[in-house]
TrEMBL record:
Pathway: Pyrimidine metabolism; UMP biosynthesis via de novo pathway; (S)-dihydroorotate from bicarbonate: step 1/3; Amino-acid biosynthesis; L-arginine biosynthesis; carbamoyl phosphate from bicarbonate: step 1/1
Documented EC number(s): 6.3.5.5
CPSase: region residues: 1-199
Reactions catalysed according to its record: L-glutamine + H2O = L-glutamate + NH4(+); hydrogencarbonate + L-glutamine + 2 ATP + H2O = carbamoyl phosphate + L-glutamate + 2 ADP + phosphate + 2 H(+)
Domain of life: Bacteria
Protein name per UniProt: Carbamoyl phosphate synthase small chain
Encoding gene per record: carA
CDD domains, per database record: GATase1_CPSase
Quaternary context: Composed of two chains; the small (or glutamine) chain promotes the hydrolysis of glutamine to ammonia, which is used by the large (or ammonia) chain to synthesize carbamoyl phosphate. Tetramer of heterodimers (alpha,beta)4.
Keywords: Amino-acid biosynthesis, Arginine biosynthesis, ATP-binding, Glutamine amidotransferase, Ligase, Nucleotide-binding, Pyrimidine biosynthesis
GO molecular function: carbamoyl-phosphate synthase (glutamine-hydrolyzing) activity
Entry annotated with the keyword Signal: no
Length: 388
């Protein structure tokens, strides 16, 4: 049922769910309309990184943490050039930013980039809806005049075909290959630059977050980034010592149409291979496993994951709505990590080969360094191969 605006301030934005539920609030950022899947993210920090994570293409993000926008935005924290999430839903309207790194406020930044925000929403109620009905299809509209055709918005949300079967990696990947040499941020220097001969690594960009590339550079990789549709021949032409498969948006099975043949071609060589999130799902598909859509997915920075080989628990950052069905993993492929929230698969590796991947984001540092060993493991595998 439609809800009333939560405050007496005029509603200038509304969020219509496909089931007819409507939330009214205050618009900020761009005006207009967008149709997407709605997910919730439980992270207390990192809204700029979340909005610019290419894996959120096709999704509007509800932030369960109420204070969003309070540290503004800055040019260093973008995970890619543009915000990629379709829009944002928050409890409190963004306040004036107060942070020494802020160069702009969130609303102006969103407006320039054509992304809609809605504030004044009961995000607890909305999050319960998402958990109960599964990530719903929604239409989000912002009109300073407050004129909304609710029936039309609900119809648009209903008509949207959703993420299943949708290959979005090809939309967010780079158009051309490029080199990456920036390393991780450190106080007081900021980001660094890699120098000297490193491991030749080809990173496939399905929607890569910049901090993943920085982590690779920080463990000594000379990274060449290739577009998502690169073939095995194109990858191998770079004579890589290791291949990396990035995160990315959309349905892994749809992206698998072109990614799986490439990965199979690379697996035929005995190269170290490391995948994160969509890259993990791609590796699993190439090995013959299946992926399935989750009810509402995992999106947050507080997800405990157990490393089944060491028994250690890592606090991880997650952002996925599909999962590898561990029951479908073939013989010779080990499940290495599981979620302690729901037991879902969080990592695999090929027995006796340096080929491994994780569902979570080791570059996102909520632990804060719990999962960095995965980058070191990849570098170590390339070092061992050189020594052979
Ligand atoms: N962060 C990611 O790479 C997400 C992978 C995939 N699009 C999913 O939703 O599961």
């Amino acid at each position: 049922m439609p809800t009333k605006p939560e405050s007496s301030v005029k509603a200038t934005a509304c969020l219509a769910l496909a089931d007819g539920t409507v939330f009214y609030g205050h618009g900020f950022g761009a005006t207009g309309e967008t149709v997407a899947e709605l997910v919730f993210n439980t992270a207390m920090t990192g809204y700029q990184e979340i909005m610019t994570d290419p894996s959120y293409a096709g999704q509007v993000v509800t932030f369960t943490f109420p204070h969003v926008g309070n540290v503004g935005v800055n040019p260093e924290d973008d995970e890619t050039g543009e915000p990629v999430a379709a829009g944002m839903v928050v409890k409190w309207d963004p306040s004036e930013p107060s942070n020494w790194r802020a160069t702009e406020d969130l609303a102006a930044w969103l407006a320039k980039r054509g992304r809609i925000g809605i504030g004044g929403i009961d995000t607890r109620r909305l999050t319960r809806e998402i958990r109960q009905q599964g990530a719903p299809h929604v239409a989000l509209a912002h009109d300073p005049e407050g004129k909304f055709d609710i029936a039309a918005l609900v119809a648009k949300a209903r008509a949207w075909s959703g993420l299943v079967g949708l290959d979005l990696a090809k939309d967010v990947t780079c158009a051309q290959s490029y080199r990456w040499d920036e390393t991780r941020w450190a106080w007081p220097e900021g980001y660094g630059k890699r120098t000297g001969d490193g491991f030749r690594v080809v990173a496939i960009d399905y929607g890569a977050k910049r901090n993943i590339l920085r982590c690779l550079a920080s463990v000594g990789c000379d990274v060449t980034v290739l577009p998502a549709t690169a073939t095995a021949e194109e990858v191998l032409a770079h004579e890589p010592e290791g291949v990396f498969l990035s995160n990315g948006p959309g349905d892994p099975a749809a992206t698998g149409d072109y990614a799986v043949p490439m990965i199979k071609g690379v697996l035929a060589r005995d190269l170290p291979l490391f995948g994160i999130c969509l890259g993990h799902q791609m590796l699993a598909l190439a090995l013959g496993a299946k992926t399935v859509k989750m009810n509402h997915g995992h999106h947050g920075a507080n997800h405990p994951v157990k490393d089944l080989e060491t028994g250690k628990v890592e606090i991880t950052s997650m952002n996925h709505g599909f999962t590898v069905d561990s029951q479908t993993l073939p013989a010779g492929v080990k499940e290495t990590h599981v979620s302690l929230f729901d037991g879902s698969n969080c990592g695999i590796r090929i027995a006796d080969r340096p080929v491994f991947s994780v569902q979570y984001h080791p570059e996102a540092s909520p632990g804060p360094q719990d999962s960095f060993y995965l980058f070191e493991r990849f570098a170590e595998a390339m070092r061992a191969r050189r020594a052979d």
